[in-house]
Design a protein that fits this description.
Elements: H1 3-18, H2 24-35, H3 46-59, H4 71-77, H5 81-103
Helix pairs in contact: 1-2, 1-5, 2-4, 2-5, 3-5
């Protein structure tokens, strides 16, 4: 399986997490956990690679402050709802860009 196909599967799993009925922080955390195995250098497109790297830097900015809490949860807990929604949008954009690159089509 190509690296892009593997990454697409991980991004698709992340999107699945984003469309559940849970609160936004829980959904985004689930999406990020789906992506934890993806390394930025695995993305073949330089723009996607840089966007993904910046996204991961953003969502791991805070150290865990509570027992059982990881960096994703600590960072998301300290973001506004608008910032967390922005993270969700960025995950979707990276996903859509990767699909467009793989299929050569523009996604709505």
């Amino acid at each position: 399986m190509s690296a892009d196909r593997y990454i697409r599967q991980k991004l698709s799993a992340a999107l699945d997490s984003l469309i559940t009925n849970r609160d936004i922080r829980t959904r985004v955390e689930g999406a990020l956990l789906s992506l934890i195995a993806v390394k930025d250098d695995e993305l073949s497109d330089p723009e996607n690679r840089e966007r993904y790297r910046k996204l991961m830097e953003l969502v791991t900015a805070r150290e865990a402050e509570r027992e059982g809490e990881g960096r994703f949860r600590a960072t998301l807990r300290n973001m506004t709802e608008e910032e967390v929604s922005g993270v969700a949008r960025e995950i979707k954009e990276i996903h859509d860009n990767l699909l467009r690159d793989l299929t050569g089509e523009h996604l709505a």
